[in-house]
Every structure is written in C-alpha cells, then in structure tokens.
Design brief:
single chain, mainly alpha, 5 helices
Length: 150
C-alpha cells in the first residue's frame, strides 16, 4: 500500500513538473526580442552588413507583429469554436500570400545575389518543415478523433 501511494505521489509530481515546463515554453518574447533574434540569425547565416541589418529589421518587426496578431486572432476563434467561412479563408490566405510576395521582393532588393540564394534555400527548408509538422499534427488529430469515436 505504501509503495502504491509513493508511486502515485511521484507520478503526480512528475505530471505537475511537466505541465509547468510546458507553460514556461509558451511565454512569448516581445516583438523587439523576436526581431532582434531573427536579425541576428539572418546575419550569421547570410553574412549581412550593418546597413542590410538596419534595412531588414523593420521588415522583420512588422512580420513578427502581424504573426502575433494572427496567432491571437486564431486563438480567439478556437476558443469561441467559430470557423472562418470559405470567403474569409480565401481573404486571409490571399493577404498572407501578398505579404510573402512583398517580403520576398524587399529581401531581393536588400540582399546581394549570393545572400538571396541562401535566403531562398533557407525559406524552402523552413516551408518544408512547417508542412511536415502540419501534416503530422493533422494525422495525430485524426487518430485522436478515431479513438474518441470508439
């Protein structure tokens, strides 16, 4: 009996610790912090000059702010169990693609040819990873849904 209680106490303690760690991961950095980190990463990977860093910083800041805004909007929609209509999804997707095109054009203007090629490769890898993650998440949701129906 004592062993059972000890095991239960350890299990509960482990669960609480794990949940606390997950909560810490979710704390968001400020827009300025995220911008600074992204610019530094790009500087390391693309060998950016000081002038290029100064030109890219406002672009990244705008992008990070918009991403946080969209994340908050999605969270609100999820909490209210409201799904966007087909027209709303089209508008959001169209707006997102327009912003990506504008961002890419600005990066092409700021970076030299070699830097832009590396930037394109980085973007392609990032997109591939994101698609893979979404696909894995959807498969997990389907499996959970099937389990719930049983």
């Amino acid at each position: 009996m004592k062993k059972l209680i000890a095991v239960l106490v350890l299990a509960v303690g482990f669960t609480v610790t794990t949940q606390a760690q997950k909560e810490n991961k979710r704390q968001q950095l400020t827009v300025e912090q995220q911008t600074e980190l992204q610019v530094k990463k790009l500087t390391l990977k693309l060998d950016l000059t000081e002038a290029q860093q100064n030109q890219i910083k406002p672009l990244i800041a705008k992008q990070v702010a918009k991403r946080q805004e969209m994340r908050a909007k999605r969270k609100m929609m999820k909490e209210s169990d409201k799904k966007p209509s087909a027209e709303e999804r089209y508008e959001m997707k169209s707006e997102m693609l327009n912003k990506q095109i504008a961002f890419k054009a600005e990066m092409k203007r700021i970076l030299n040819e070699q830097q832009y090629e590396r930037f394109e490769k980085m973007s392609a890898r990032k997109t591939h990873k994101a698609k893979k993650k979404v696909k894995k998440h959807k498969m997990k949701e389907k499996a959970e849904h099937r389990e719930d129906r049983r």
